[in-house]
Here is the input.
Amino acid sequence: MLQNIPSPIGHALSGFRSGLANVACHSTGLAELPETIAFGSPAFPDGTAMSTRYTADGEGLSPPLEWSGVPDTAAALMILIEDADAPTPRPLVHGIVAELPGIDGRLPEGELSGSQLGRSPGGQTSRLLGKNSFLRAEYLPPDPPPGHGAHRYVFQIYAVSRRPHFSHAPGRSQVIERVRLYGIAKGVFTGTYGRH
Here is the structure.
């Protein structure tokens, strides 16, 4: 969608970025959580560029995700993906996963690319997709304005001591509220992408 913005406009906006300080993991109540969960993607190392496969310039698939070191007291996990460099006051939300089981695990490539509610064989919710910034319950692939420079996409996972039980797809503020109330640990890594 943003690939059609002329590069000079993107370049002119390059000084306007939401900033890492506004990413959820740096907010009050979440910044203090111990970062003891090893969180990452086998598709790219922390702090490096993501393949176009995971962006609006490629297939737009969500990258594979893996995590370990979840505390024994975790009742559930929640994932939040934000663009720290969006030219907006708050980071752009690219994905939310709520109500994941509170254990070490993984999500395969493309798992978040469609609107879906996962259920285990026993009928319990295994994962619930939350709303991205376009209010859709799906992965929003990176789509930075041309000429705006590289964007940092911050992947965050939170362990909570009480299962959230959202009645519908939650948004960023609802996830942050639950983590502030029941958060016990987190994990964070970053992927980058830009159009030059």
Notes: The longest helix spans residues 172-182. The longest strand covers residues 183-193. The CA atoms of residues 51 and 107 lie 17 Å apart. The beta strands are 38-40, 48-49, 65-68, 76-83, 92-101, 105-107, 117-119, 125-129, 151-160, 183-193.
